[in-house]
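1st attempt posting a full record on here, be nice pls
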Amino acid sequence: MSLQNNLKFPMGEPSAEDWDGVLEGEEATYKELLEVAQKVAKHGDATAQYFLGAAHYFGKGAEADRKQAFEWYFKAATQGLAQAQYNLGVMYERGEACTQSFEKAFLWYEKAATQGFSKAQHNLAALYEAGLGTPEDGQKAAQWFEEAARQGDIRAQYRLALVGLKGEEGATLQGVQWLKKVLEQNFAPAQYTMGFLLEHGVGMQQNMEEARRFYEEAALSGLPQAKAALERLK
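the predicted structure (as tokens):
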């Protein structure tokens, strides 16, 4: 059974970076903050513009409106705010409130990535790897994945783990080490992967009991592959 055929690599989600606490706040307080942000954003404050974009994108304290989210993100992004540049890239990649364009997604990811924004570094690497919006370039993809991983981006760390585990000569020590690092963060796809390795004895001794335990942990997060694996082991 192929490890590669049983794994899907997760792509990026829009970020609520720096506003996570606010997004979880009381609705009344959030609306008050929005009123202030509206006034400040009109005077060109990039952070307030990003805040309004996030409010409309996630529908917190404001009407869920992807078009308005795009417009506010664009205003903040053109002023150089990395979080907004990343989110704009995600919207271009998905074609949300705009015509889908991998080329524009690549450009905005690149702007944010060069500022050190790890989520953008990961997505930029993914576009290089797939040859979407830019010519395929495995070397640049690897460089950006590694940069994002070093900064703690869990998706990049998981991707490096998969590369090490799917090597032509079998699972490498580095691949297993990256996987263990991701497992410490309770990342469901990594839990599934460890279950797979233990079930089939890839890069480590076969251990069905431990495999089942990791599948169960991944299944608790709703991962379909893990639920299917548990059914298979019954």
